């Protein structure tokens, strides 16, 4: 398992996934609400086929990382990224947006070359 911690400054050769304080706070609150141990469990961030531009983001909570996951920790939140997804989202930042009409997690990805009109899918 590849581990990278923003809190300790450890770096791997893979571009890191950054997490904003707002995103970490929201995800940790949701993890705790699900009764998961935040010292072991975390948020899985992945890329899947789908959407009009070809790829879309997915997120879910996992009890623990897989052996080949990149694991990053920011502000107490553990984020798990599988090797295939890492190629698409390395260097991205996970944020949480608060808005009048909607609130939710958002991935700011420097690898995206185009997005669909609704913003739900992308192409690298």
Automatic annotation (TrEMBL):
Region feature (Disordered): 1-20
GO biological process: iron-sulfur cluster assembly
The organism of origin for this protein: Halorubrum ejinorense
Entries under PROSITE patterns matching the protein: HESB
InterPro entries: ATAP (IPR016092), ATAP_core_dom (IPR000361), FeS_cluster_insertion_CS (IPR017870), HesB-like_dom_sf (IPR035903)
GO MF entries: 2 iron, 2 sulfur cluster binding; 4 iron, 4 sulfur cluster binding; iron ion binding
Protein name according to UniProt: Iron-sulfur cluster assembly accessory protein
Limits of the Core domain: 17-120
